[in-house]
Every structure is written in structure tokens, then in C-alpha cells.
Write a structure and sequence with these properties.
Layout (H helix, E strand, L loop, with lengths): L6 H11 L35 E5 L5 H7 L18 E6 L2 H11 L5 E5 L2 H7 L4 E7 L8 H11 E12 L15 E6 L5 E6 L4 H10 L2 E10 L8 E10 L1
Helix pairs in contact: 1-3, 4-5
Length: 244
């Protein structure tokens, strides 16, 4: 019931009705921003993720998770003809429809698992430790940070990285949140209907404060523009942190 009450369920339902999900070619790079091809790739999670345990919170149709699962032997140092030896990846998404799409797209990959469930509930029930955790416009920012970030830190190995992208708090001329409460935002569905949701719309300083409370050290904060949205205001905030 929680998933079906989410606007993301309506979004996935419309995507599903436009056509059947079919096997897809694995994307050549990981995307963190609203404009494909801009910004860094998977290297911000670590220089060599082969056979490492990676968790994506809010995996959607699975594109980024599939890329992580098929990385070359070492990021930036693959040789011609070298077979992939990617990470052992788990992608979690609240909406079962999205998980079914992801499995239809990339279920053939042996080192990739998709799970339907709430990100916080998954972490609370999980007994694994991860070498990297990521969220691309996913659970981070949509689940109370005072609950989700400690759970993430608990499952991240010391010295390992968390990276997440969120809508920039100044997108469209907005002002960043001035307190720790969520504010009203909207999801635009494929048919252009807009559905409301709550989002924790923090700037980098406020994210750093919340990360620090859980033993995570902010290592970078990058902002990206998208000319398709006018280019005047940044559209994406990309945060990386490391567990102490």
C-alpha cells in the first residue's frame, strides 16, 4: 500500500503502459545529473569496484545498477577485449513495477539483484556491509535524513563512499530550505500530470551537517546546469561522502 500511494507508482504505471519492458543494452556510463553525458561517472564511488558490494537506493528501471554490474576490471584502466568484472550490485526501489521493469531490462546479469521495498526498511532488515552506496534522484532526499543517513552509515564499510544526486535546492529560482523540515515538491508524470510529494531540499552545508552527525565526512559537492531547463539555475546537486 505504501508503494501504491506514492506518486512514483503512478509514474511507473504510465511508463509500463506505453510498452512492454524488454532486455536493453547496458549503459556505457553512469548518469548522476538531469543531462546525460554531463558530470562524472561511476569512478566517484571508488577507483576499482570489481567484485565489491554496491547498493543503489531508488534504482528505478535499473540503468545505473546494470552499468555498475558490468564495469571493466578497473575504472579507467580497461584493456581492449578485457571482459567485464563488475561490482556485486543490489538495486532497491519502492515500486514493484519499477523492479519488474529493471529485471526485464537487466535480469540476465548474474551479479545484479533487484529488490522491491522501502529504502529505510531494507537497510533496517539488512545484515550486509557495502563497499559503496549510491542514490541518483532516489531515496536520499525523499526519506527523512535523520533516519536514512544513520542507516546508510551503519551499512557502509569504514573508508568507503556514499554518493547521491538530488534536485538542486535553487532549481528554477527556489531558495534552499532554512530548516530541517521537508517542503512540498512535485513529480511530473509522462502525461505531464504533476503529483505532490515531500522533499528534504537541502544545500551542501545542510547536507554536510546531517552527514557529519552520522559519522560520514563530506568530500565533495558539485552543482550542474542543464541548458534544456534554461541553464540559468543549477538543476542537480551531487554529494559525495566517506565513512570515517
Amino acid at each position: 500500500m505504501l508503494a501504491q500511494a506514492s506518486p512514483w507508482y503512478a509514474h511507473a504505471l504510465q511508463r509500463t503502459t506505453t510498452g512492454p519492458a524488454e532486455p536493453l543494452t547496458v549503459p556505457a556510463r553512469m548518469e548522476w545529473t538531469t543531462r546525460p553525458g554531463s558530470g562524472p561517472g561511476a569512478e566517484i564511488l571508488g577507483p576499482d569496484l570489481r567484485h565489491k558490494r554496491v547498493l543503489e537506493l531508488g534504482c528505478g528501471p535499473g540503468h545505473n545498477a546494470a552499468h555498475l554490474a558490468t564495469l571493466p576490471q578497473a575504472l579507467g584502466s580497461a584493456r581492449a577485449g578485457e571482459p567485464p568484472a563488475g561490482a556485486q550490485v543490489t538495486g532497491v526501489d519502492l515500486v514493484g513495477l519499477q523492479v519488474r521493469r529493471a529485471r526485464s531490462h537487466y535480469g540476465r546479469l548474474n551479479n545484479l539483484t533487484f529488490v522491491a521495498g522501502h529504502a529505510l526498511h531494507y537497510l533496517q532488515a539488512c545484515d550486509e556491509q557495502f563497499d559503496a552506496i549510491c542514490s541518483v534522484f532516489g531515496a536520499i532526499g525523499l526519506v527523512a535524513p535523520e533516519l536514512l543517513l544513520p542507516a546508510i552509515a551503519h551499512h557502509l564499510k569504514p573508508g568507503c563512499s556514499l554518493a547521491f544526486s538530488v534536485p538542486h535546492p535553487q532549481r528554477g529560482g527556489l531558495r534552499p530550505a532554512t530548516d530541517d523540515r521537508p517542503r512540498r515538491d512535485y513529480v511530473t508524470l509522462p502525461d505531464l500530470t504533476r503529483l505532490p510529494l515531500a522533499r528534504w531540499d537541502f544545500d551542501a552545508d545542510r547536507w554536510e551537517k546531517h552527514l557529519g552527525r552520522t559519522g560520514l565526512w563530506l568530500t565533495s559537492a558539485q552543482e550542474f546546469h542543464d541548458a534544456r531547463h534554461g541553464g540559468r539555475w543549477p538543476t542537480t546537486l551531487l554529494i559525495t561522502a566517506r565513512r570515517r
